[in-house]
Amino acid sequence: MRQIVLLRCVNLGARNRIAMPKLRDALTAAGLADVATYLQSGNVLLTSDASPAQLAAETGRLIVDTFDLDIDVLVRTRDELADVVRRNPLGRVAVNPKRYQVSFLAEEPDPDALQALAAFAVEPEQFVAIGRELYAWHPDGIGRSRLWARLAGPTLGVTATARNWTTVTKLLALADEAR
Asked: Quick check: bond before 124 cis, omega within 30?
């Protein structure tokens, strides 16, 4: 099954540095097939029969053993990622894909956390929560967004990592190329 492995907070400045070629080699040596990476921000496509939860745990252990880094790992199957793209709840307003973010969550967030998050979405920003994904539109940029700071931080109460819409759709296209 084609799966997408998303590493949280890698290669941001000088912290949590992982060379993607070395990561590909380590994953291949661990028995995973068709391993490819996209960009330097911890996007891995591979083939595995393991469940997404199993693959996330195994990848996390491999990163600790190989790179001595404790990195949060989230996994979506190709079909789950296709559902994320198909939903696209803010597609009509999110006209710049670099400012349209999807936060992938380890589990569904608590409704109270989502309600608290809504207070930080200042017009014209918007966000929509669907299952284990949060879609957020930041028309004035991420750097100025109070909402983004909450999406990227621990206030959600669940592990999360975000990708812009360009990356999300490219990851799906790459997953489809390997089918």
From this structure: yes
